[in-house]
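[Q] Does anyone have a clean structure-token version of this?
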Amino acid sequence: MRDFIDPGVIARLSGLAMDARQPMIGSVSGRHRSPTRGSSLEFSEYRKYVPGDDTRRLDWRAWGRSDRYYIKEYEADTNLRMCLVVDISGSMNFGLDGSQEAGKSKLDYARRLAGTLAYVAAGQGDAVGLYTAGQQFKREIRPKRSPAHLKFVLDELGEMAGDGETGLPDALHQVAEKVAQRALVVIISDLFMDPETLRGCFQHLKYRRHDVAVFHLMEQSEIDFEFDRPVRFVDLEGGGPLLVDPTTIAKQYRRAVQEYLEQMKNIIRDTEVDYHRVSIAEHYAEPLSRFLLARKR
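[A] Here you go.
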């Protein structure tokens, strides 16, 4: 166990399986629907017989009723590939009430979310991969199924450090191209970038038939902006400090934040991404519970 993995949270979530929202293509039998027709007990549909079909799958009762040949098709179940994409830009070092204290930052919160999801997925026999998005495409761990591989993923999560500008758009395009088969792509980030840039990323992932989920991490002061005295703001992604009287810009700032959130809302609606806005003041088990419950078949 790592210090960012809570056995109590794992036990709480153990009864909530992680389901895909669309059929998946995997290498072994599992709990997720597959677009491939199989011979499981889960009946799917009838279709007309065409020359070349396996005659052992003919439904003779349907032939007796209609004098036509029909094939019975079943849904095959498969395993899932989950690709965790974690933003490790400098802005992820921002924490509760602006603190950069260890254990309170967005990156620490992301570490807990990702580590717990990795445990849940591995526990139900699914493959887990990790992609960290820094100024360049920092780290790539392809999805695999094994306890040793899970340890490798958790080790990398434990060593993550936020620095520089975000490389999330490049990382998402890389994932879309490099993960050949359908996967659940879980993005954990503060999305500190132009929303229209994300639209192209989401569309690329959806075009490649990936199931996309987003945990958008925010700290409440970023929305409320309730400062009542001059404040020195520091750009955590490399820019210089700025001394500002908040009362002169508060109204414009709040308007800009609402416009940003409205843009995000439109993009999520258009791309049909599974979006979760999360306050890092909330215990991380809560958004995970909502995420898993919403996916329950």
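[Q] Thanks! Anything notable?
[A] Confidence is low (pLDDT under 50) at residues 26-41.
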